[in-house]
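To: structure subgroup
Subject: Chain for Friday's discussion

All,

I'm putting the inputs and outputs inline so they're searchable in the archive.
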Amino acid sequence: MANDIESLQNILKDDPSNFQARRELSILLVNNGFNEEAEGNLLYLSKYFPDDAEIYYNLGIVSEKLKKFDDAKKYYQKALEISPQEDFYYNIGEVFVELKDWDNAILAFRKVLETDPNDGNCYFNLGVCYFNKDEKNLALDNFQKAVSINPRDVYAYFYLGYIYQNDGLTNFAVDSYNKVLEISPDYSWAYFNLGSIAFKNGNLEEAKNYLLKTIQYNSSDIEAYKLLTKICLKAGETEEILEILHTRLQADENGDLYYCLARVYKYIGDSEKYCDNLELALNNPYTLTFPKKIVKQEFEYIEEKLDRKEKIEPQTTVEEYSPENQNLEDESEKADLDESEENFDEYSEGDEESEEDEELSEEEDEDFSDEDSEEDEESEDDEELSDEDEDFSDEDSEEDDSYDDEVDEEQDE
């Protein structure tokens, strides 16, 4: 491939007006990740062929790869003005999704379905749009159509599970998440949500197993550690959670995890380490999502007790803070510390759903991109959870019907 690029570049050195060589070079460049150079060649061609829809279409693809979504929209619109085609509508729909222009994205995908009513990717994308417009019934309809066309659409199943979970349809949610795991056994978010459901239902051992799976496949999922800490404290499994938290903190400091450690040390009555980890939590403010004011007041309270040579007693339960069991001088401090304990204690599904909702709202176009349905049918055994690179050619449109971003980056976020 490198030789082909070099050969075409040499041809253009001798004959810059060889447009066919420049077109072929542009295709090779973008397929090999040289997007800026491809963009330059395509812009050059557009000056000489201002009515060539394919040039603008390919410029749109390059702009998408460069994350220049406003430019991509402009080029796709130009291509559509010249020659309205199904592929052009699909790609501009994806750009509207990136720009969070849900209404125009819906219009674009509907245009595709006028000519191809069995495009599962369009139904998935329509589901994403309606999900973000908070039109959950329409989102459900479209995700269900997506999986009926492509039974291996892991992202559509995840969305279905999430919507069912929010609506309290636990059995349907569990079925959808299990379908996700049948297709993709390392999908950490499905394990996390199954753990959340199990925890809400009081099945602590089941929840713990799901959360251990979560961090096995995504060691950066802080919410999983937080809920796992809660479960281990309820079960009195302090040594295990201490080892888990310390192991994770060796890889990367995190304010929330230090706060979890502090809570464990409070539970076992180790005042010094309780105090130390509260301080470490405050020293990592950018990764501390617990209320900083409350954590600081809790730190000052235990620090003062240590100064007076007083220590805390081990707990036999995961107690709630209350004014009665806290020897505080100030009533407002009692209320604040009660709020702190509730913040740690309330790992209800609502808290977990709010985080997932933020992830889905801000990042689904990166994290939940859909595979090309025809490719899935032809190669189910080789199913990948990251999108294939688009074949950059005028003739081939199927590969352009898939998202460009990789699923794995979603987990890190």
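Points worth raising on Friday:
The chain has a mean pLDDT of 81.
The longest helix spans residues 349-367.

D.
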